Amino acid sequence: MIDLPHLYSGKVRDLYDAGEDTILMVASDRVSVFDVVLPDEIPDKGRVLTALSSFWFDLTVDLLPNHVISVDPSTFPEGARPDADGRATLVRRTDPVPMECIARGYLFGSAWAEYREHGTVQGRPMPAGMQEAEVLPEPLFTPTTKADAGHDLPMTDAEAVDLVGAETFARLRDAALATYARGAEHARARGIVLADTKFEFGTSGDGELLLIDEVMTPDSSRYWPADSYTPGGSPPSFDKQYVRDYYLTLDWDHTPPAPPVPAAVIAGTRARYVEAYERITGRSFAEWFGPNDAGGGG
Predict the structure, then answer these.
(1) CA–CA distance from 171 to each of 75, 177, 178 (Å)?
(2) Average pLDDT score over residue span 29-40
């Protein structure tokens, strides 16, 4: 039980007031697909999201500052432990930009659905004859709305500019594409394809733009093993696509409540998330912070 003032709960994260303009951001083991939170949790999912985000925040801080203060439970305020250990990040309080910032390097997901119907991705014409999961001519920035409930909706560049202003839009686009490029390069060296990912940004009290929330996790990204990747279908993955693919086999209209998650899908998802962390970071997940653990890997 976290004994701090509760501020907000989203699909995956819970936020608590940690005092002095800081927030304790706790990643739960909840999982959502098609913007619906599923009735069963994935063990250790919150720890993986926190551990992998911490790695990426460190690896990209030279591109854009981020909101992280600490992931070490021994530095958390009284009342945060032990439940948050391994799943929590102490962060600076920010004003989130009201837009999801997606960088895509491959034709998949909603981009593939639009391409099949119109030959475009977020209104941009694409070459004819492309296959599902094929690499795009160049990475694209495809913003969407940020919905507290329900589905995020695609935005044109013009709509995004109207929402945040031309200067901020350009900064978000450039930061998202640069961070994606850094992540894709590192993942490729580890034998993994980073197909696409979603970023969130916020501004501090003095107006500084920061990378916030989570970074290039299996929840917010598509990761494919490079040695088995081929275009023309849904590649094997280390991410939430494994859960999505299961739910696509069901007669379910993607509105709450969702059917239960089978035990095999729960176990398979956990294994894929842990493998993603270990392959990307080169570290053992067993060394990451756990409950009642003030030591562990950082």
Answers:
(1) 32, 10, 10
(2) 94
pTM: 0.94
Name the amino acid, one letter, at 168: T
* In the block, residue with structure tokens 């894709």: 184
Domain boundaries, position 129: 96-248
Among residues 123, 128, 98, 100, the alpha carbon closest in space to that of 111 is found at 123
Question: Residue 228 and residue 259: Cα distance in Å, rounded?
Answer: 30
> Going by C-beta distance under 8 Å and a sequence separation of 6 or more, which residues neighbour residue 59?
182, 183, 186
Q: How many residues does the chain have?
A: 298
**Residue 253 to residues 33, 69, 222, Cα–Cα distance (Å):** 12, 41, 23
Share of the chain above pLDDT 90, in %: 89
Residue 191 lies in a domain: yes
Query: Is the bond into 98 cis (omega within 30 degrees of 0)?
Result: no
CATH number for the domain including 172?
3.30.470.20
Domain membership of residue 262 (yes or no) is: no
pLDDT one-digit tens code per residue, 187-232: 999 999 999 999 999 999 889 999 999 999 999 999 999 999 999 9
